[in-house]
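Hey, I was hoping to borrow your eyes for a little while. I've been staring at a protein lately and its backbone has me curious. You're getting the sequence in one-letter code plus the fold written as tokens. Would you mind checking whether the tokens look sensible for this chain? Here's the protein in full, and shout if anything looks odd to you:
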Amino acid sequence: SQENAKTGAVYLYDRNGTAFTQSAKLTPADSAAGDWFGAAVALGQDFLVAGAPNDLDFNGSAYVFDRDANGTWKEKQKLTVSAVTTIEAFGYAAASSGTRLVVSATQPVSGKGAAYVFGKDANGSWTQEAMLTAADGANTDQFGASVAMDGEYVVVGAPKADASGTDGGAAYVFKRDTNGTWSQEAKLTPSAGHSPGDEFGVSVAVSGSVALIGAKLGDGNEADSGAAYVFRRSTAGAW
């Protein structure tokens, strides 16, 4: 119906043998038309997070659902951050690892974008523990267009960053130290073949000390055919 247009939903599928069957359809209790709930999703051990970047007059939000012992998914908590600009788009991208999750907002901090790390406490509640921004971020970089998380590493893509020319793109690696403090460790760009318009950082992934960064308009076999770049972290901390 028009009342529910673009509200959004998240669908769960369970594997049975080689087949996947839908087991749940999730919507938040306060869903409204135009929220875009489900624009970003991430799945943890017994929880999931789903972004709704158009919620709250485009400031955005994210919802955490927990799975109980019976396998039923229930809404646990709605995550928000304080609005920094008129449009924030919190919930644009999301990722999780262990008892932490990260949700990005592509337009806060004067339009430069940010990624927010949340940790789960002993009571199962989620609280913000860090706000990650690029040390050299600029307006229109779209920092937060993609995020990935594994252990003490978070990788954030900024596909419109003007590295190697307009919209060449970049990705940023953040690391959590033994005191729980997050800081930027590296800015990633390709060592060769990086050109304006590549949008390097449009997609990101990380596993241990290896990061994978996509450039949808990178020059692969043909101009703008796309490419993916693999980075590995040395013991000295260089990628």
Notes: The chain is about 0% helix and 45% strand. The chain has a mean pLDDT of 91.
